[in-house]
Specification:
CATH class of the largest domain: Alpha Beta
Number of helices: 10
Shape: elongated
Radius of gyration: 20 Å
CATH topology of the largest domain: Rossmann fold
Strand order of the largest sheet: 3-2-1-4-5-6-7-8
CATH architecture of the largest domain: 3-Layer(aba) Sandwich
Structural class: alpha/beta
Distance between the termini: 52 Å
Number of domains: 2
Number of strands: 8
Mean pLDDT: 93
Low-confidence stretches: none
Order of helices and strands: EHEHEEHEHEEHEHHHHH
Helix content: 40-55%
CATH superfamily of the largest domain: NAD(P)-binding Rossmann-like Domain
Length: 238
């Protein structure tokens, strides 16, 4: 199967590498030099135009609409690894109205594979199934979900979680290692993991998914009246 991967960033490279084990893959990117470099590193082709059996989008959430319009009609099967379902599938439906469509979200960074991949099968067929098979062949587990369930979950597991860790990193002071507790030590490690990641990716998550405001309001409740902290524990554990 001939597959075009749109986007040569970290997720595009991961996807192209995974799919090239079983399919003929070409890559394209808004930066042609980056696409050419990735193609050379992975021993795959660069896009020279024309039709494909399937187009796979691995682009930032903010560029999905533009990317899908640019490549509209180049295949009659399409998937994405964008990380957001509502707006992404709306864009895929508009640009590929008669195509097989599946949206996926690997819930891990490429370096942490294998892991869980959330999947919304909008209009699947044998070609999209073959892509999912290639991902499971790498040891990943698929979690089939809905647009609403996925995007609502991302408000907690991404927007709120990332905001909480970043807030801790902004507020914390350096302390000698022996002072760290079983709670603070892992938080410092999480803060290091988040703050050494791609800031643009974290910013896009905050822009797309709600949750940070609720987290800030919860922190204000704790700070406003320390005497009520015990009742907040009760609220959480009910």
């Amino acid at each position: 199967m001939n597959v075009l991967v749109v986007g040569a960033g970290a997720m595009g490279q991961w996807l192209a590498k995974r799919l090239s084990a079983e399919h003929a893959v070409a890559v394209t990117d808004i930066d042609p030099e980056r696409a050419a470099g990735v193609a050379a590193d992975l021993d795959v082709a660069t896009d020279t135009g024309g039709q494909y059996d399937l187009v796979a989008f691995a682009v930032p959430m903010s560029t999905v609409e533009t990317a899908t319009r640019e490549h509209a009609g180049r295949a009659d099967a399409v998937i994405d690894v964008t990380g957001e379902m509502r707006d992404t599938l709306a864009a895929l439906r508009e640009s590929f109205p008669d195509a097989a469509r599946v949206s996926t979200h690997p819930l891990f960074a490429p370096a942490n594979e294998p892991g869980t991949i959330a999947v919304v099968e909008d209009t699947p067929d044998d070609r999209t199934n073959r892509i999912l098979d290639a991902l499971t062949d790498a040891g990943n587990e698929l979690y089939r979900t809905s647009i609403a369930e996925h995007d609502e979950a991302m408000e907690t597991v991404q927007a709120k979680a990332h905001a909480a860790v970043l807030a801790f990193a902004l507020a914390t002071d350096d302390v000698p290692e022996p002072f760290h507790t079983p709670v603070s030590g892992p938080l410092v490690e999480l803060a290091d993991a988040v703050t050494t990641g791609d800031p643009a990716v974290y910013a896009e998550i905050q822009q797309r998914f709600d949750g940070a405001d609720e987290l800030a309001a919860a922190a204000e409740r704790i700070a406003a009246d320390p005497e009520t902290v015990a009742t907040l524990f009760e609220e959480v554990t009910e």
